[in-house]
Design a protein that fits this description.
Layout lengths: L2 H11 L13 H26 L9 H8 L16 H12 L7 H10 L4 E5 L23 E6 L3 E4 L12 E4 L2 H10 L5 E5 L4
Parallel strand pairs: 2-5
Antiparallel strand pairs: 1-2, 3-4
Helix pairs in contact: 1-2, 3-4
């Protein structure tokens, strides 16, 4: 419904008679216009509330989503969230909501992709007699079995997009994977060590 629909609805509910004129220049039409504007505003707020229920479409209550989910993540290297764009903050909310998975290499890659990074996770298990097969890498220290080398394919480029970017944000923000490193160190298996690298294989 638009404002005109609400005006016509109000006028349809008005009593009949000379004092309740429906003419466009009548005072009662001005009253109907004001009432319609108020109800149309309420209608818009209800529609907005439905969109705000979903973080990927919210605008006003993103900070409440972050507070509920404990974002930004606390890291030993300080606050990596400083200067984040609105879309980056939304991506972190969605990543945390969808984080209920086992900490496997494949899931780490999917998580990094949801934050805007393309990564390769390499494990370096040593060759163990009875387990190693033909073609496996030989040698290596037994401690290497606990290292997960995460190779990030360059910095994240966050472009301003119509409908999601907020006034005052840069047209393109280049950021290194500080947030990804922080997140992986929080959710990794306790016995593993994450090593982040920007080097290509």
């Amino acid at each position: 419904m638009d404002k005109q629909d609400y005006k016509e609805l109000f006028q349809a509910l008005m009593p009949k008679g000379p004092a309740w004129s429906r003419e466009p220049d009548a005072k009662m039409s001005d009253l109907a216009e004001a009432v319609a504007a108020f109800f149309f505003f309420i209608h818009g707020r209800v529609e907005k509330a439905k969109r705000e229920m979903f973080p990927q479409e919210c605008e006003e209550i993103l900070i409440d989503w972050e507070r509920e989910l404990g974002l930004p993540e606390t890291c030993i290297h300080g606050n990596h969230a400083e200067g984040q764009t609105f879309q980056e903050r939304v991506n972190e909310v969605l990543a945390k909501i969808n984080r209920s998975f086992s900490p496997t290499v494949e899931n780490f890659k999917k998580l990094a992709q949801s934050l805007g990074y393309n990564v390769t996770v390499v494990t370096t298990p040593p060759s163990v007699c009875g387990i190693a097969r033909c073609g496996d890498h030989l040698g290596g220290n037994t401690a290497a079995n606990y290292y997960w080398i995460t190779i990030v394919d360059g910095a994240r480029l966050t472009y301003a997009r119509c409908g999601t970017a907020v006034c005052g944000e840069p047209l393109c923000r280049i950021s290194w994977a500080d947030d990804l490193e922080c997140l992986l160190n929080r959710i990794k298996p306790a016995h593993t060590i994450i090593k982040l690298s920007y080097a290509q294989q």
